[in-house]
């Protein structure tokens, strides 16, 4: 179990190298959080940079823009291949959409990395004005509920047999909606842990990366 709040510190001798897809979105925030939980972090904008990392984080942002830029920078197929080969990958918000095998309410030409067997509804919680914060209990994280930030967030409407549900909304009209999942070495949340001071989701992912190595 990941403790209630991971302490920042210097990188351990066997720290993994985690790439952050640096095409659009909350790149700096993820870099800071991953560094604070002990990972070496590198931005990834080109296929050659992808070859130098052990794992990848896909940040929140705008999923259709990330999809188009991944094609433009010739990263779509290389990332799909690395994911298929077992590379640990975590996506927050738009990153969750990019990891889904099916995107509902997306653009007709929108593509994803299709790593997790799930159907995700884009902007399911509403527009920017409908953004909100709420506690979410996350399987694998001890301590108090995670204070989750939802901004134009998706939710998961279907998961395949190999997908483990890590968290659901507990209150309000969206109670029961799936907002955190894991399938093998892949993890996704519909909220933005990078926008909080709580490092537990990033610590959980880095532990996953270390275990995969």
TrEMBL record:
Its EC number is 4.3.3.6, 3.5.1.2. Keywords: Glutamine amidotransferase, Hydrolase, Lyase, Pyridoxal phosphate. It catalyses: L-glutamine + H2O = L-glutamate + NH4(+); aldehydo-D-ribose 5-phosphate + D-glyceraldehyde 3-phosphate + L-glutamine = pyridoxal 5'-phosphate + L-glutamate + phosphate + 3 H2O + H(+). The keyword Electron transport does not apply. Pathway: Cofactor biosynthesis; pyridoxal 5'-phosphate biosynthesis. InterPro entries: Class_I_gatase-like (IPR029062), PdxT/SNO (IPR002161), PdxT/SNO_CS (IPR021196). CDD domains: GATase1_PB. L-glutamine binds at residues 61-63, 122, 151-152. In the presence of PdxS, forms a dodecamer of heterodimers. Only shows activity in the heterodimer. Belongs to the glutaminase PdxT/SNO family. This is Pyridoxal 5'-phosphate synthase subunit PdxT.
């Amino acid at each position: 179990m990941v403790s209630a709040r991971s302490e920042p510190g210097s990188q351990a001798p066997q720290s993994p190298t985690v790439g952050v897809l640096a095409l659009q979105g909350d790149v700096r925030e993820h870099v800071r959080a991953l560094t604070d939980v002990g990972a070496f972090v590198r931005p990834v904008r080109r296929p050659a940079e992808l070859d130098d990392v052990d794992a990848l984080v896909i940040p929140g942002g705008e999923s259709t823009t990330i999809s188009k830029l991944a094609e433009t920078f010739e990263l779509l197929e290389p990332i799909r291949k690395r994911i298929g080969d077992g590379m640990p990958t975590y996506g927050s918000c738009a990153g969750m959409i990019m990891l889904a095998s099916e995107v509902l309410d997306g653009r007709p030409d929108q593509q994803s990395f299709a790593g997790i067997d799930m159907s995700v509804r884009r902007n399911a919680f509403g527009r920017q004005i409908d953004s909100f914060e709420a506690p979410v209990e996350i399987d694998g994280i001890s301590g108090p509920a995670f204070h989750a930030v939802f901004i134009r967030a998706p939710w998961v409407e279907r998961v395949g047999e190999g997908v483990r549900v890590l968290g659901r909304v507990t209150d309000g009209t969206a109670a029961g909606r799936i907002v955190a999942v894991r399938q093998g070495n892949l993890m996704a949340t519909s909220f933005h842990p990078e926008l909080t001071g709580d490092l537990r989701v990033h610590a959980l992912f880095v532990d996953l990366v270390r275990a995969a190595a």
